[in-house]
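User: I'll paste a sequence; please echo it back and then give the predicted structure.

Assistant: Echoing your sequence first, then the prediction.
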Amino acid sequence: MKRSNGAAALLSALVFPGVGQWYLGRRRLALLFLLPALVAGFVYLNFALEEANAVAGQLLSGAVPLDPAAIAARVEAQPTSWIVTLSGWVFVVCWVGSVVETLMGKKTG
């Protein structure tokens, strides 16, 4: 069965980095994109959940009023760890790299 590089690029772009390579049968290359993106996504999600939990705790205790502007100011005031910023960049690089590789990689079929 002939597999399209365009379809693979869409899979990597819309589903998850590395899925397009997996679709094309390039398993090792898929893991090269997939594993770092999974770790980066986990780090980023963990940070977001910790932040949401902290804000929810402050809302419930009354330390922050139920005002969207006050909540936004509280979230923006929190410093972001360098590891969270790095994980965001790693995810973006894996995502873009995965799409570009499927489009520029060798033709299959």
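The radius of gyration is 19 Å. Helices lie at 5-14, 19-23, 27-61, 68-77, 82-104.
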